[in-house]
Amino acid sequence: MMMTRGTSRVARLTRGGRLFPAVKGAAAEGEKFPVMGVRWRSSLTLGEKGQVNNKNSEDGGNKEVVASYWGIKGEEVKKEDGTPWKWNCFRPWETYQADLTIDLKKHHVPTTFLDKLAHWTVKSLRFPTDVFFQRRYGCRAMMLETVAAVPGMVGGMLLHCKSLRRFEHSGGWIKTLLDEAENERMHLMTFMEVSQPRWYERALVFTVQGVFFNAYFLAYLASPKLAHRVVGYLEEEAIHSYTEFLKELDKGTIENVPAPAIAIDYWRLPADSTLRDVVMVVRADEAHHRDVN
């Protein structure tokens, strides 16, 4: 199948992780972005993309407006009140209100050998994380979410292939795991707006995610039960980390800034919500993933 001129151009420009020309242009003009000096074009809202392209056109650049990853303009989506929907990384029907009635102390006591292996594996991973990030909970959360979104995708992918090989239904687990991965990814998109990781922390993501992806892939092949137990214990640690995050916010050690717009729309939060409200709903999500796994 031949690619359209616009699509091939976008694919060529994004290959190798390079920035789009429009974003380069914005960075050159000194526009401030909250993370990594500049924000990737895929994380901008539709309105921001239009503004970037308008700036480019004023300088003699092309007037093409790229509204999706592939350079194909999607259909216009509106909110319930009729106002335009400004996010292309999720849609209104994917938003929800988090259930905050969670049991923070719930713990699966390890009984079998696999349970104990999963439990102590996670405990051993917590020590270097505490040493590296200490009380920088914003960057810690962003770093951990780059890893937390991996298990659901790996498990969903392997169950998908298993369903194809055996010509059988998955019992709904494929969608459950992929939804979990997507939810964790949205946590990352949210914390990107409030955290500014250092260059070595961004570089660490490549190493940690690469090692964890392959290790979890092999673990799931060997024993899905062990893999899910690992995720369950990881989520228990995530609940603990976000609880400590809330304590720092309450003490004033971390500034309780206004909630990012992406979080307000994704979790249907009130317009005057703060970072504390965001951490509360994220912690509730982690508790749900803990119980599922």
From TrEMBL:
Keywords annotated in UniProt: Electron transport, Iron, Membrane, Metal-binding, Mitochondrion, Mitochondrion inner membrane, Oxidoreductase, Respiratory chain, Transit peptide, Transmembrane, Transmembrane helix, Transport
UniProt subcellular location: Mitochondrion inner membrane
GO cellular component entries: mitochondrial inner membrane; respiratory chain complex
Catalysis performed (reactions): 2 a ubiquinol + O2 = 2 a ubiquinone + 2 H2O
Keyword hit for Transmembrane: yes
EC numbers: 1.10.3.11
Enzyme class, UniProt record, top EC level: oxidoreductase
InterPro entries assigned: AOX, AOX_sf
One of the GO BP terms on file: alternative respiration
Domain of life of the native organism: Eukaryota
Membrane disposition: Multi-pass membrane protein
Complex formation: Homodimer; disulfide-linked.
Sequence similarity: Belongs to the alternative oxidase family.
Protein name: Ubiquinol oxidase
Upper lineage: Eukaryota, Viridiplantae, Streptophyta, Embryophyta, Tracheophyta
